[in-house]
Amino acid sequence: QVQLVESGGGLVQAGGxxxxxxAASGRTFSNYAMGWFRQAPGKEREFVxxxxxxxxxxxxxxxxxxxxxxxxxxxxxxxxxxxxxLKPEDTAVYYCAARSRGYRSLIAGNVDDWGxxxxxxxxx
Length: 124
Description:
Elements: E1 2-7, E2 10-13, E3 18-26, E4 32-39, E5 46-51, E6 58-60, E7 68-73, E8 78-83, E9 92-100, H1 103-107, E10 113-114, E11 118-123
Parallel strand pairs: 2-11
Antiparallel strand pairs: 1-3, 3-8, 4-5, 4-9, 5-6, 7-8, 9-10, 9-11
């Protein structure tokens, strides 16, 4: 079990960039696969990106591939989402997620712990 706190959300113009951070505490962070999901108003929560416990494997949804990059720094107990080339359709609340060593199952939506979210708004 880990506690997750997101930061870095805000308002950005289309084509701009933001970096989200997720600070983790609790059980051993390095043993958890980590990921990001997002939810726009009136829509279902959807997968965005995932990273394995070691950081050696990453995967991004097709909608953000080539624009978003997920990374982690286990020494700092932190996972990041670098978002470039932002589009208005990226507007959503972004949630950090933790899964015990199961990054592929996390992609499918299996999550052990959630953060409370940070809002990203992209203006047109």
